[in-house]
Amino acid sequence: MKNHNLKQFTKGIKNGIPIALGYLAVSFTLGIQAKKVGITAIQSAVASIGLLASAGEYIAFTLMGAGVGIATVVLMEMITNARYLLMSCVLSQKIDENTSLLKRMLMGYCITDEIFGAAISVPGKLNPFYVYGMGFIAAPMWTLGTVLGVELGSVLPARVVSALGVGLFGMFIACIIPECKKNKIVGFVVALSFILSYLSGEVLKYLKIAGKQVDGLKVIFLTVAIALGATILFPVKEGENE
């Protein structure tokens, strides 16, 4: 069993390298934002190692720079990052029911959008050590990128910094395309989510309702609505994914 866990952990590290490289680029731009509001490299490192969430950290840095109270910051973080609770619930259905609480909590810490995408595509049961491996390589790179952004961000041209984040979106697409090819229902749901996300964004723009917190709530609402609809219309039979 230990050898199997080590094998899954090593596999997670290997498959997490593209995620880690993408995080290095994205968190670099986050570090630039942190520096703008007066946050030091050490402070940004503590924030990044404790919160693996780009939108959440961006909002936190912006609010702290504006002198907003801690209660408001915490509330906004809960709203913005609530989608990770949904992701955790989904992954909890893929792991062994005897998995300890400590292992589940460690998995929860490792979950990001990209790691979730890689983990959910694993056929059959999911070994928590696979997720640990991805988090083991991704979290330090996320933190390193933030620190480098604080220290070196002002040296690079704005266009170069903006271009660094493109790779992460390509990597995330690479996570979902194979699953869409294997399962037409998944492909349909993904396409539907893109369409509804775009249309809802346009409606919010028309109503002049915008902001990071609104985007976070939109993602949560669409995730719940689409997932619920897909579950009702296309239920997965017990043992079908084994």
Count the DSSP helices. 12
Radius of gyration, in angstroms, nearest whole number? 19 Å
**Helix-strand pattern:** HHHHHHHHHHHH
Proportion of residues in extended strands:
under 5%
Number of strands: 0
Structural class: mainly alpha
Describe the structure.
- There is one protein chain.
- Helix 3 (54-65) runs antiparallel to helix 4 (70-80) and helix 10 crosses helix 11.
- The chain is built from 12 helices and no strands.
- The protein starts with a helix and ends in a 9-residue tail after the last helix.
- The chain is 78% helix and 0% strand.
- It is mostly helical.
- It has helices spanning 2-36, 41-50, 54-65, 70-80, 83-92, 101-110, 113-120, 128-152, 158-163, 166-182, 184-206, 212-233.
In brief:
The chain is an all-alpha fold and 242 residues long. The chain has helices spanning 2-36, 41-50, 54-65, 70-80, 83-92, 101-110, 113-120, 128-152, 158-163, 166-182, 184-206, 212-233. The model has no long low-confidence stretch (mean pLDDT 82).
Search tags:
single chain, 242 residues, mainly alpha, 12 helices
Describe the protein's topology.
Layout: H1 2-36, H2 41-50, H3 54-65, H4 70-80, H5 83-92, H6 101-110, H7 113-120, H8 128-152, H9 158-163, H10 166-182, H11 184-206, H12 212-233
Helix pairs in contact: 1-3, 1-8, 1-10, 2-8, 3-4, 5-7, 6-8, 7-10, 10-11, 11-12
